[in-house]
Each structure stands twice: as C-alpha cells, then as structure tokens.
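Deliverable D2.4 — example input (structure tokens):
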C-alpha cells in the first residue's frame, strides 16, 4: 500500500453536479472545482443523506430500473412461461400478465421518458454506435446518480492535480483497475461510468460482467456500447495492455448478491485479478460501495442451494424485492457512497509466482478494510464490521 500517511480525503456529490457539466466535452477540472476536501475523515452520517429529487426523475428511474431488471430475466423467464402456457390456463394467464407488464414498462420508457430526457440533457441521440465514452453519459445513468444521491470519495493519493504534480502526466495516465465490493443485488454505484473514465485519468473504463449477460438480447447491446467486456482474464489483460484502458470489476461477483444487508465479501479466493494486475503492471484501487447491500431485499434460501447454483452457473437465480416491495422492481432510495482506498501499486511481472499474488492480494484486502473503517461512520454504519470469506 502507498501513501498511508495521507489525511486528506475528497468528495464529489454527483447528484449536485449541474446537468450542463455532465458531458463528455467538459474538462475534468470543472468537476474537481466542485469537490470538497476534509482532514482525516468526513463527519458522522454525512454520506448517507437522500434529499428529495425531481418527481419526473424519480418516476423515470422507478420505471426504468424495473424494466432493466425485467430485461435481465426475460430470456430465461419467457421460454418457461410459454411452456407453462401450453400446459394450463393458469400458465397462459401468467404469460399474458408478464407480457402486458413488460410491454407497459417498455412503452412508457421508450415513448415517454426517452424523448423527454434526451432533450433535457441535450443529447443528439440515445446511443452512439462507436463512441463508447459518450455513451457513458446516458440520461439513465445521470438519473441513477440523482435517485441514489451518488457520492464519490477518494484519498489525496488519487487526487488528480496532486498525482499529476508528483507523478507526471505519463504516469498519471497509466491504466488502473477499479476493484469494487460488494455486489449486492445490483451494484448501481458503478453506473456513474464517466467518473471511472475521467476523474482519475483519461482512460476509458471498461466494466466487466458475467459472459452470459453479454449474450442477452437488448440488454447486451446497451452494455457493450457503454464499454462492458466479459469477466475473462484474456479480455481484461488485453484491455489493460493493448487498449491501455481502465478496468472495473466487482470482485465478489454473483456470490456477493446473496449478502443483502450484510457486509460480507467473498474475496478470500478471488486472486485472479491480482495475477492480471501483476502481468500488466497496473495499480489496483480498492473500492467499497456503501449502500449496495441495502438497495434490494434478496430472498436467500436457508440451505444455500440457490447461491451454490448461481455461482456454478455464473448467473443469478434468486428473487429480490425493491421499493414498495416490488418484485424485481426499483431499488430503495438509499444513498450510495463509492469510497476509494489507497491504490495497490503492482510491479510488472511477466510470470508472477503464487507468493507474489498472495502478497498483493493481501494488500488489496487490507485496502478494503482500511477504506471501510475510515468511512463507515460517515455513512452511519459505525457498528458494522466488514468480513471476508
């Protein structure tokens, strides 16, 4: 770990960012001008506030996130419902209700909200076929930031003006790996995509996801066009070394979905990303997403059957409930604080030994503990402890 003596921390509240600054063409200095700085730590309960937001934004996210969640299960649910419809009248009724529900959400989103917010945020079109960096400024992700009052916190060692002063511009633009936990039902804190691509360096950040997700109809098109890649070693290493872009990864993956309201991270055996970092010589930044485990209530069976199946199949097989107890619905309006820790500086080693991997993996775990302990009181979680399994 580096720069452990740092006592200054910076915060950027994305919900307070003026809409005209949420644009690819805006220089990062405009964002940094709005960041606040404190010595040692932020005051208790200062990172967990959820102020009222524009009602139109709130309703759009209520519909939009519910539609997104439904889109993830559609390819799996639809064949089963069609088969059930052939067997009974009840099955036919369930299929009909599902299609009406999905169609209603889709039409409200596409024909009502999309034209309104594309115009409001002055976008030429919703998605570009080639400009992934611009696609990261979608209105849906902007509204996510407002819905959850998203805040980013980082140490002085990652503050861009100081990094440039101490390390020089060439070193500053070195690709990074943002390694976030916990996953929760859905890690919405990472959807502030421009932050990862712009605030700390000028490298487009590609988040990773289960390969099966990038095979889903509709959803996969959107995810690819904001830069997602499969969570496979070859794709990650090529992105770091050939494209020289940033990588974002949720380290506890699908196993982290089953820890709703518990700060338990499945990372003890997740060492593959450290091996990749060493081969690329890329720093790993530990990131803790305060609030991720509070967005939805995940239904967990007492025998762990669904969890084991989900991990083995690399796809989530668990129901969860959101705001208003809405099945697969929008999340609770909970503040999200993405808190970054001190980067783990990994030397470039063509063939790292297991001892090398273990050493830097332990530094990563220490980084998670450090960032959690540093900011948990500011989030109102002074009594919680982070556990690794």
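Example output (designed residues):
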């Amino acid at each position: 770990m580096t720069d452990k003596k740092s006592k200054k921390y910076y915060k950027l509240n994305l919900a307070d960012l003026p809409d005209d600054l949420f644009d690819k063409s805006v220089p990062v200095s405009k964002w940094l001008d709005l960041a606040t700085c404190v010595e040692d730590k932020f005051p208790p309960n200062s990172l967990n506030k959820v102020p009222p937001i524009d009602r139109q934004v709130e309703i759009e996210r209520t519909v939009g996130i519910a539609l997104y969640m439904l889109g993830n299960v559609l390819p799996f649910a639809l064949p089963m419902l069609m088969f059930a419809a052939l067997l009974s009248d009840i099955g036919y009724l369930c299929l009909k209700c599902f299609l009406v529900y999905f169609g209603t959400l889709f039409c409200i989103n596409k024909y009502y909200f999309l034209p309104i917010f594309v115009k409001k945020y002055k976008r030429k079109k919703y998605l570009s076929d080639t400009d992934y960096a611009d696609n990261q400024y979608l209105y849906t992700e902007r509204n996510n930031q407002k819905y959850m009052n998203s805040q980013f916190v980082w140490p002085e060692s990652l503050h861009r003006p100081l990094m440039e002063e101490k390390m020089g511009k060439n070193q500053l633009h070195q690709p990074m790996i943002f390694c976030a936990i916990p996953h929760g039902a859905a890690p919405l804190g990472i959807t502030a995509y421009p932050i990862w691509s712009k605030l700390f360096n000028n490298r487009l950040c590609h988040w990773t996801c289960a390969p099966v997700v990038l095979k889903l109809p509709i959803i996969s098109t959107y995810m690819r066009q904001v830069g997602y890649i499969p969570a496979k070693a070859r794709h990650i290493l090529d992105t770091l070394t050939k494209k020289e872009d940033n990588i974002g990864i949720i380290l506890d993956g699908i196993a982290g979905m089953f820890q709703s309201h518990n700060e338990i991270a499945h990372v003890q055996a997740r060492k593959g990303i450290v091996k990749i970092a060493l081969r690329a010589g890329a720093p790993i930044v530990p990131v803790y997403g305060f609030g991720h485990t509070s967005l939805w209530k995940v239904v967990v069976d007492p025998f762990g059957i669904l969890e084991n199946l989900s991990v083995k199949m690399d796809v989530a097989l668990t129901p969860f409930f959101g705001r208003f107890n809405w099945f697969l619905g929008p999340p609770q309006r909970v503040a999200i604080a993405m808190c970054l820790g001190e980067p783990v500086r990994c030397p470039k080693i063509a063939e790292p030994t297991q001892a090398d991997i273990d050493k830097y993996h332990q530094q990563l775990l220490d980084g998670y503990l450090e960032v959690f302990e540093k900011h948990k009181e500011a989030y109102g979680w002074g009594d919680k402890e982070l556990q690794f399994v």
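The radius of gyration is 21 Å.
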